[in-house]
Design a protein that fits this description.
By secondary structure, the protein is an all-alpha fold. Helices cover 71% and strands 0% of the residues. It is globular and about 55 Å long.
């Protein structure tokens, strides 16, 4: 699932919560990575005023389906504020890492079953929407279909139960076409 679609499934409240965890410096980095600017009018002299301006800019960029901004937001949120989840998952898989960062393409070296076993461990320890965000982002970055084909991960980010089966079927078809073209 693309980062912008993860954000859309999460909904505005959860995206607002992710945004709220970021510092001003982190927000500016996300805006820059998303091809936007972090300039604020001179009337926004307080941190709260700047954050309000930046939040409107985020909303405008999300409305334009700015994929880079969504990716930057999720990576910044995950790496700066939820690194423990990465550490726990990689430890569970037996992957060598440094504070949750690894060069190993563990989605290729581990079986889909091994990858899915870690889902329950994470769900028992962390909020479901955070687990879903992390795993779908991993799936996107490591180009693996495993998490997009796992109903509980899709449900964790807020995908309505009635849409999950259809999404998985469409995803499998697109994935097969993509792999066939490669």
């Amino acid at each position: 699932m693309k980062p912008i679609d993860i954000c859309k499934n999460l909904g505005p409240e959860k995206v607002d919560a992710y945004y709220g965890e970021l510092s001003g410096k982190e927000i500016r980095a996300v805006l820059k990575a998303g091809g936007s600017h972090s300039n604020t009018p001179s009337t926004a002299f307080s941190q709260a005023g700047r954050r309000k301006v930046w939040r409107k800019r985020f909303d405008a960029e999300f409305a334009k389906d700015n994929e880079q901004l969504a990716l930057a937001l999720l990576i910044e949120w995950l790496m700066r504020h939820h690194r423990n989840m990465l550490v726990d998952y990689l430890d569970h898989l037996g992957i060598k890492h440094t504070q949750g960062e690894t060069d190993e393409d563990f989605c290729e070296t581990k079986t889909p079953e091994e990858l899915r076993e870690g889902v329950d461990m994470l769900l028992a320890k962390y909020p479901a929407h955070e687990v879903g965000t992390y795993l779908l982002l991993v799936g996107h970055l490591q180009e693996t279909p495993v998490f997009d084909e796992t109903a509980k991960v899709l449900g964790a980010v807020g995908m309505p139960e009635g849409e999950i089966e259809g999404y998985i079927e469409r995803f499998k078809k697109r994935w097969a076409e993509r792999k066939g073209a490669a």
